[in-house]
């Protein structure tokens, strides 16, 4: 997913959050990061089972985008039948680590039953 250049921002990003959101934007990308963190070196079908509700089309598109962004590694083995595994790159691990405080905030919010006054 490419962010269109914004006026006044030479690279199209207003701030670091904007640049990060370009990589993790969408409903499923952070969940794909989580799944590959919790279950490294997964095949496509295994990832799909870890993410109930995601379609094959969306998973394939997101994996391609995340590979192009350098956060997911795709390794294709020359075997019969063909085997492809996905894992996080070093940047993907760093991104997942950066998202951990957000996950903690979400768990805390969920555990108290929603927003606080």
Automatic annotation (TrEMBL):
Gene3D superfamilies: Winged helix-like DNA-binding domain superfamily/Winged helix DNA-binding domain. Residues 15-114 form the HTH hxlR-type domain. InterPro entries: ArsR-like_HTH, HTH_HxlR, WH-like_DNA-bd_sf, WH_DNA-bd_sf. GO terms for molecular function: DNA binding. Signal peptide: none annotated. The keyword Transcription applies. Pfam families: HxlR. Keywords: DNA-binding, Transcription, Transcription regulation. This is DNA-binding HxlR family transcriptional regulator. It comes from Micromonospora echinospora (Micromonospora purpurea).
